[in-house]
Write a structure and sequence with these properties.
Layout lengths: L1 E5 L6 H10 L3 E6 L3 H4 L9 E3 L5 H10 L5 H19 L5 E5 L4 H11 L2 E5 L5 H11 L11 H13 L2 E4 L2 H9 L7 E3 L12 E2 L8 E5 L8 H10 L6 E5 L13 E4 L7 H7 L2 E4 L8 H9 L2 E5 L4 H7 L6 E4 L4 H16 L4 E2 L11 H14 L1
Parallel strand pairs: 1-2, 1-4, 2-3, 4-5, 5-6, 6-7, 9-10, 9-12, 10-11, 12-13, 13-14
Antiparallel strand pairs: 8-15
Helix pairs in contact: 1-14, 3-4, 4-5, 9-13
Amino acid sequence: MRIALLSSGRFWLCDLARELEARGHDVTFYSLVPPSHTSRFGLPARCSRWLSPQLAACHVAARRLAGTRLGAAANHLLCLALDRVAARVVDRCDVFIGLSHLCLTTIESVRRRFGATIIVERGSRHILSSRAILERVAPAALRPRPVADWAVHRELAEYALADLIVVPSKQAAQSFLDAGVPARKVFRNPYGVDLSMFPATSAPPIESTPSIIMVGQWSLRKGCDTLVAAWQRLAEKRTRLVHVGSVGDVALPSSPTFEHHTAIDQRQLTNWYAKAHVMALASREEGLALVQAQGLSSGLHVAATSRTGAEDLQEYLEEPTPVEITPPDDTEAFTAALTAQLERARRQTGLRDLLRSARARFAWNAYGARYDAMLRGC
């Protein structure tokens, strides 16, 4: 099939493009990422179409204003401009796969010009569910809203036009069904992990301080206030909490046993996982956090909420104990999950291979095979 994919960044769509190309499809990945970068993740340069040169002013403004009061407006303009450019330049395709909220005009264009099958990739829950969850925890005076009106309007229109909406987890799929989207329009496919980038690691020395790692933005969306409260109940002086990522709308703890490190190249994360015992993710709203599969592949036990996609990964394991799942916003339950996972992790010795015979099911190759089978059955 001739398949066109549209994304702003690399995200998981670059991995999807690589896997579909490997299965014999004629793939073009349209994005703001140069081929020199996507090729580092296995996508042949011939499959990448770099749109940044046509959007230079918008792209530069969005990057410079990120994190400022004007950042949301700049991102909105970049989204609209990217969609309009893609609507003109996307070549003939049988299937169009677009990242949600980025592709409304392009959907209309490729359907009109080519009669293409339309697939919308949504990495999280239905946007109305996401907005409702985030607005319950956002400060009352926060402006702009956690999920902008323009994004809601675009996504709802994309959902309506799509032949299929692809999500990464059961809980994300259920949010679409709860919103009245027919089950036939929703396909669930959990993300994969680069097993070569995240090999099983050796257990930390028995005398080392128990260590919990959280990777991702330090924010209310990621439930970092719940994580900190649970960690403090564990007696923080005897347990180290490490964060790797950017800082959002939650203050970093002031404690000698807390460490914060800015976002790093994904390929360096294995070094951090090797030092930790447990991965923690207390998210309130998320589709499937990619770092969970990375942590499991590296040998870390995981404590996560039911809104992280952890349940989908747990299904792949030989036995469920490497993943402990709690409701969101439940500090007591999350404390218990951390306690249980730390106890299990401290009993690990030698090479920590939690995936065992399930390792192949976690790979991007398996993700691509599931997607390919779905496309061939359409």
